[in-house]
Write the structure tokens for this entry.
Amino acid sequence: VKVKIPFGDKYLDAIFSIPEKKSTYGVILTHGAGGDMNFPHLVSLAAYLASHGVLCLRFTCKGLNVAYRAKAFKTVLEYLKLSDDYKLTGVFLAGRSMGSRAAASVIRQLSQDDDDDFIQGLVCLSYPLHRPKLQSKLRDEDLLFIRCPVLFVSGSADEMCEKQLLEGVASKMKAPKKIHWIDKANHGMAVKGRTTDDVMEEINAQVFSWLAENIELECK
């Protein structure tokens, strides 16, 4: 179901992937710095979640400024929270690359208000912990403040997320967290010798089983 979500004087394009049975939990999903909500990995994950009983709302927000992207994410979150069509008990924020930074930023902002039990957790696909070859500047400030469960799915050969560095940040985080490494995958989750579908199957299954652990979904 395509929707347009008011955002300032503009609209954000978004698509609901709706499960057959009424869903009590949802996932809001957004893309990285390039591309949009129709990025194949997001389409694949949304379809997988919906087929396993989890509502998924994915949206496009062009803009290379994390604060702007976070603002858009917050708007989509409010939209879903107030939606009469989909009354959800809770939601997970998820993003790919820059989208996961925006999601982390929103969770940190809202956790300072302390009134938000609606957000159940954060899913970071290819979290861009640092710029390529610039490991000295880590983008970990939001992660260290988050309290809700966090799942990282990253490639072990990601040039924007060195394995040891992410493990180091994770060890300092106060939140319950899990890292799933996709062996030999780069930032775009490409792995030599494996098809995109094969890699996506691994990612989708990991994300869903983690969601299930955190909300005890009845796995079909």
About this structure: The mean pLDDT is 91. The chain has one domain: 2-13+29-216. The longest helix spans residues 196-215. The two ends are 24 Å apart (CA to CA).
